[in-house]
Every structure is written in structure tokens, then in C-alpha cells.
Amino acid sequence: MQQLERIHLVQFFLFEAQSLQLDATSAIIAPNGAGKSALLDALQIVLLGGDRSRIRFNAQAGGSHRARTIRDYCLGVFRSGDEGRKRRTATTYISLVFRDTETGVPLTAGIALGASVDEPEHRTHGLYLLPGVALELDEHLERVKGKELPLAWNTFREHIARRCKDVGETPQLHPNAERFLRDLLLRLRASPSASPDLNAYRKAFLNALNLQRVEDVDLFVRTLVAEDRPTDIARFRALLDSFRQIKEKIEQVRQRIDAAEGAERQYEKIAGQATRAASARALAAEYARDLYSEQLDQAEGALADAQSALADTRRGLADTRVERDTLREEQARANARLQGSAGYGEQAQLDELSGRDRERLAQLKKD
């Protein structure tokens, strides 16, 4: 957190050179007309970057930015007339010294102004941010012939450049309030990830200066807290129509998605049935394969048995043929021996006669 610890005022209102030391419990308490609002206005000048279009001096008293001017504060005007002015020319410095309560690193933010009774408006010499530097009151002053006078702006600018260089930093001198405030808010933000809103800051700052007793919380929030953003009815209606069209498209897409999901479920059912049918066919084919395999095994066994029996039969046939041939040879030899014997011819004649007699006998039996 950044804490404001000192305010340096040089030739501002009735102050020639004054420092105010602040802490978390500081308060500005004094009778009416004592100059309390002048201190708040000094803060206002720096924290609004000297932007006259934004500043509302003496806001608690209901004043406006025309009631008192920056030039009046520089010249120390407290009433009308030459007698109601503290100085004819002024080189005014307002410096605010902040310090990070966690790291202890200081930051000085300030404004240098000039004014003269011969000029209708004040001059802004510069807006400065000095990172790492906590300026002291004496650094705004010089002694000339025993008098303390404000440093000339050029001299002061050279001095703050040296002070920043001593701590390894560079002074930030901004040409306008917008850039000054953006840089200031960036350096005073609560966390590195925060993104300050300049417009919201300006409104909150002015509302804080103008804060009164809150009678109507709703009115307070709408007028002092919430940002003014008038509703563009035509644009709002166009957006509403767009939202309706988007809603209709979303509904159409939802219906399409539902239809697609229904089709997907049907396809999933069909795919499941097809898978089951394919599984059944595969199972039937597997059973048929097993059956054919068993039949093939049986046929192969029967074939092996038949081939073995055929081989045995062929071997037996070959043996029988050999035996037949042997017997034929023996018969031929026996016939040859028989024919060569003495009674073979007579026996043959007897056999022939015997055969004819048997044929006649058979014929007679038939008759």
C-alpha cells in the first residue's frame, strides 16, 4: 500500500515554505476560515494534474472551480484588493511524498506553477514523478541575501534529475495532466496486476471531496459512485434483437443437435445389431470349421486305415499270386509226370466213357 507521508508547500496560498508530516491517523481540524480547504485544494491540484476543468476548489463549501483559481492560490489571494494578496509573483511547488508500506520505497509526485499579478492566468512549469526519491522541503528552496526563495524551475529540474540518478532512476516529467495521472496511478496501484481506470478515479476523487451525509443510498450510488453511462435506446434495442436472434439460432442448433443425437443413437443401435449379427455368423463359421475339422480328421483316419488295409490286401494278393504260380508250376510238372506214366491213357479213356454214361443217365432221368 502507498501511504502519503509528507506534503511540501512552497509559495502556496499563505504558506511560504511549509511541510506537513502525515500518518495513518492524521486529520485536518481547525475553525472555519482557517484554511482547511486550502490544504485539500493543494492535494487536489497535484492528484488531478492541475487540470482546471476537473478541479473543484473548496468543494465542501459548495464552491465551483470559478470561486477560487490556481492563480489565486499561487499569489496568496485571501480577499479582494491588493491588500488581500500575499505576493505579486510566485514560483509555487506542491510536492507529495508517498512511501510503499511493504518495500519502504518512496515516490515524490508534484507540480511546479508560476503566477504574476500582471498575467491573467497561472503557468504550469512541469508535472513531475520522482521514483525512489523522498524530496525534502529544503530541496525546493535557495537562500538569496538571507532570504529563502523558491528555486527557479530550470534549477529545480536539474536538481531532481541528479537526485533520481543517485538512486538509479529517471525523473518522469509529463507535458499534460492525462499522462501524468496515468503514470501516477500506475505507480500507486495496489498490486502489479491492477489496471487503474482514470475516469473512475477522477469521479471517485471529486465525490470524496464533496462527500456529505448520505440520506438516500440509492441516489448516492447512482449519482456519485456509478459511472454516468446513458443508455442508447436504439443500440440497446439492436443488441436485444441480436440477442433474440442468437437465442433463436441457439434453439435451432439445439434442435439440430438433438436430432443428430437421436440419429446417432439409432446408428449406434444398428451398429450394435450388425455387430451382434456378425459375431453370430463368425461363431457359426467357427462351429462349422470345428465340425469340418473333426470330419476331416475322421476321414483322414479312415483313409489311413483303408490305405493300410489296401496295402495288406495287395501284399496278400501278391503272396497268393506267387502261391498260385507255384501251384500251377507244380500241377504242370505233375501232369507231365502223369502223362508220362503207363496207365494214364487207359485211365483217360475210362474217364471219357464214364462221362458219357453219366450224361445218358441224366437224360434218362429227365425223360
From TrEMBL:
Residues 335-367 are annotated as: Disordered. Coiled coil: none annotated. GO terms for biological process: DNA synthesis involved in DNA repair; double-strand break repair. CDD domains: ABC_ATPase (cd00267). InterPro entries: P-loop_NTPase (IPR027417). Residues 353-367 have a biased composition (Basic and acidic residues). Signal peptide: none annotated. This is AAA family ATPase. It comes from Stenotrophomonas nitritireducens. The lineage of its organism: Bacteria, Pseudomonadati, Pseudomonadota, Gammaproteobacteria, Lysobacterales.
